Fold NAD-dependent epimerase/dehydratase family protein.
Amino acid sequence: MQHVLITGGSGLIGQRITALLEAQGKSVAWLSRSTQSQKSFLWDVEKKTIDPEAMEWADAIIHLAGAGVADKRWSDERKKVILESRTHSTQLLFDAIEKAEKKPDTFVSASAIGYYGFQTGPVLLEESAPNGVDFLAKVVRDWEAEVKKIEGLHLRTVILRIGIVLDEKGGALGEMLKPPVAAPLGKGDQWMSWIHIEDLARMFVFALEKTTLQGIFNAVSPNPATNYRLTQEAARAKGKPFIGIGVPEFILNLVLGEMSAMVTGGNRVSSQKIQKASFEYEHPILIPALKDIFHN
């Protein structure tokens, strides 16, 4: 039986991955700051402590931990938390793996398409595209640099750059459909590279199981959509009114501050590399994906 250790396991994505792995008969444990109903090992990133038995137990690690980038307005302190929750947690895992007598053989880490920058226009971006220059792009760059150090410990390492995750229970869809009337953000022509949460969870399991897979892959659907279209179709699937007049950028700037660039900018990101590795999507098309999410 394969033992899989997950950081950030209690989040939406972590819970889906856990359910998929356990359905396959794998043993799953979470790294957590407190004892969970799920089997868990204790760690504390701020105190730089981790149960050494976790590494001895684990055959593979899935690393999802990181403070939510859209949970709070970006003060200098919040920016520090967003960065260090990712880099420091990865450094702690590196140290624990390096010290362990029995090491895991596989390390699969979350990352983000924020690597490419807030606004990259209509160009279809592959994994080799350059790093952006804004705050989140630098966060992702530094995060991935720490993951690559783990690769130096001779673990098979996979990085999945996650797009906008579509899920009924939270994330982008919940925020987009929170107002009484749904509307595009800004001009609405910015690209949104989305992925159904089930496909994302399956992609992590795929990365875990396909022993020839290594390196960086975009975790997005094959069919990105504009903000206008995604909002319109999500409202239709949810049965919510939609108005085609975009929320002005200056209002978004007033409400969100620097964070507004996350929603007024956009990326059109390619999924070709993971598809060539033989990953098959269950929800590659926007409208059927939204119907599945809202059970239509």
Notes: The chain has one domain: 3-293. The domain at 3-293 is CATH 3.40.50.720 (Rossmann fold). The longest helix spans residues 76-99. DSSP finds eleven helices and 14 strands in the chain.
